[in-house]
Design a protein that fits this description.
By secondary structure, the protein is an alpha+beta fold. The chain is built from five helices and five strands; from the N terminus they run ββββαβαααα.
């Protein structure tokens, strides 16, 4: 029976979620499978991949052929590397301890690279957020300045001249009143 390691789609429309399964190549895509090896969720950032490495290696050793997408996922998680290293054990070039040591070193290096990419992406996102916030502050400041300018009373160009004329009239009337008061005082005092 030809066995394939492939993806089996689950989830709803627009929200895919996949199981990584070992299935008969003649079975339907979402049909009967022999064993579930892991899961793959492409909607998260970064994509979530959970896989049982030992079971996947066992299936590869038994002759299961991965599809292109499944091969990429297995390669990303190091299953193909471990399968390759175990081939060296069968040939007598490596020991089990050396295989585990090399595989764990590769996993640690991979985690460091992924962590660096995540932190870099997070920094870029924070910088973009800060730039957007600064741009919004500038727009708000301009809007506030326009509103305060619109709220101030409009001053005409002729207003200073009119104010000066009004002041002169007031001064003349107060001067006339002062003279009239002095005249009354002088008449009543004499």
């Amino acid at each position: 029976m030809p066995v394939k390691i492939r993806l089996q789609r689950h989830g709803r429309k627009g929200k895919p979620y996949f199981w990584i399964v070992a299935a008969d190549s003649r079975a339907k895509r979402d049909g009967k499978y022999i064993e579930k090896i892991g899961s793959y969720n492409p909607t998260t950032v970064p994509a979530t991949i959970e896989i049982d490495v030992d079971r996947a290696v066992t299936w590869l050793n038994n002759g299961a052929q991965p599809t292109d997408t499944a091969r990429n996922i297995l390669s990303y998680k190091g299953v193909l590397l471990k399968h390759h290293l175990l081939g060296g054990v069968r040939k007598g070039a490596l020991t089990e301890e050396q295989v585990e040591e090399k595989f764990n070193a590769w996993l640690e290096e991979k985690e460091n690279r992924i962590g660096a990419k995540k932190s870099e992406a997070q920094k870029k996102q924070e910088e973009a957020k800060a730039k957007a916030l600064e741009a919004e502050r500038e727009v708000n400041a301009k809007r506030e300045a326009e509103l305060s300018a619109a709220a101030q009373p409009q001053i005409d160009e002729n207003a200073p001249e009119e104010a000066a004329e009004a002041q002169n009239e007031v001064d003349q009337s107060t001067a006339a009143e002062a003279k009239a008061d002095e005249k009354k005082d002088s008449e009543s005092g004499s």
